[in-house]
Amino acid sequence: MALDATARARVAAQWMRENLTSITGFTKAELRAAVEAIDDWITANQSSFNQALPLEFRTGATVAQKVSLMAYVLWRRIGRLRCEEDG
């Protein structure tokens, strides 16, 4: 389910709070446009994402579980997800 305008604004605001120490080459408006583009891309590519999942998971998991797993993978890829197994 796509984010509404308020949720998109809150995503941008939270990202700014968590990245205060980062030097950026873009404006707040450009960040908000990027949030919108990402959310729109997710909506446009939902079917492709779902089809990429193994059949058993695709048919057994809820939409929320699928999206949550995708978020975990993305957070891990950027080093923001630590696991108990990491020690």
Account of the 3D structure:
With 87 residues, the protein is an all-alpha fold. The chain folds into two domains: 1-44, no CATH class; 47-87. Helix content is 68%, strand content 0%. It has helices at 5-18, 28-44, 46-52, 55-60, 63-77. The longest helix is centred in the middle third of the chain and has 17 residues, at 28-44.
Short description:
This protein has 87 residues and is mainly α.
Mean pLDDT: 94
Order of helices and strands: HHHHH
Look at the helices and sheets and give the structural class: mainly alpha
Gap from first CA to last CA: 35 Å
Which outline best applies? Answer: globular
Give helix % range: 55-70%
Strands, count:
0
For the sheet with most strands, the description reads: none
Low-confidence stretches: none
Question: Key terms for this structure?
Answer:
87 residues; mainly alpha
